[in-house]
Amino acid sequence: ATPAATMVGTTIGAQNGVLFKGGDVLERAKDVDTVVFDKTGTLTKGEMELTDVVAFEDGEAVTGGETAADGGELAAEARRTEADVLRLAATAESGSEHPLAQAIVEGARERGIDVGSPEGFENVPGHGVTATVGGDEVFVGNRKLLRDNGIDPDSAAETMERLESEGKTAMLVGRRPADGSDGELLGVVADADTVKESARDAVSALQERGVDVMMITGDNERTARAVAEQVGIDPENVRAEVLPEDKSDAVESIQSEGRKAMMVGDGVNDAPALAVAYVGTAIGSGTDVAIEAADVTLMRDDPLDVVKAIRISDATLAKIK
Ligand code: ADP
Ligand code: MG
Q: What single string gives the DSSP state of each residue in 153-217?
């Protein structure tokens, strides 16, 4: 494009909250044939809320689940309660800044639970947290986290699958006592996120243009597919359980088929993927690291601005013909 056309395109972009980092990207955007959306914070609002707590004892669910952290109907006085599970999960998570963790802590406080501080705490990126609470080792996270720590998550399979097929992120809570006795599954907690209002329209506008729309997430397959369905993304185009450090490899592998991919993301996790993408697009409310790595920044939180970015590129290049 001529310098004048580039200037016009950049200005129109800025007026629409679409910031292009230079003329090159303004020219490239129109050729994008694949858009890869990060899930959390990009297609969804990233505002997690605690929705379910299920207590397990001896490999069985002892409570019903849905939001009832107040104990619910207990089979027997001595049985573990939802409040027990939630208190422990929230205490373990209180040191984490992960949105999933913050929702658990806030959800516990809202339900009148006194959230303590763990004696020790460690993030296990892409899997969960391990913490020391009352001398015991407590685990909150995905199936792999529990398995890696010698706790079999299979008895919670049905509960996990039910919650995940509702699009929720279900997390297992386990404990290994200080006395060295066997680890035990204590329960399941679930957080839900909400899909952004315009996510579905953005996906269908891109598809109408002939662009392949994909989704990438660290979340599990079943939750990812449920969210994909809500926004109109083909389940085949979902890449789930992608570890933070593997997101850029996933984008590179998509591009190795000769595709020109736009990656759209908001998190620190997404920065390497934004950098390797043909066009990296950051959501403006996202982290600075993501914005720095990206070629385009969307000042609003609106997924429809992805379509706008491509259209502005179209229009800018059309002017020189
Ligand atoms: P995303 O790509 O959605 O931001 P992450 O890579 O951060 O996801 O996490 C992937 C999965 O690991 C989550 O879906 C969850 O099951 C588990 N996980 C990560 N952090 C935590 C945490 N603080 N507490 C519990 N589970 C977690
Ligand atoms: Mg994200």
A: -GGGHHHHHHHHHTT-EEEEEEEE-TT-PPPEEEEEEEEE--B-TTHHHHHHHHHHTT-EEEEE-
Please confirm, yes or no, whether 234 is among the known catalytic residues.
Answer: no
pLDDT tens digits for 167-217?
A: 999 999 999 999 989 999 999 999 999 999 999 999 999 999 999 999 999
123 & 139 share domain? yes
49-60 pLDDT, tens per residue? 999 999 999 888
Query: What is the pTM (predicted TM-score) of this model?
Result: 0.83
Helices (H), 210-287: 221-231, 247-255, 271-276
**Same domain flag for 291 and 260:** yes
Range of the domain at 102: 49-192
Residue 144 is which amino acid?
A: K
Ligand 1 atom at shortest distance from the alpha carbon of 140: 25
What is the distance in A from the centroid of ligand 1 to the CA of 319? Answer: 45
Centre of ligand 2 from the C-alpha of residue 312, in Å: 25
Same-domain check for residues 76 and 55: yes
ipTM associated with this complex: 0.95
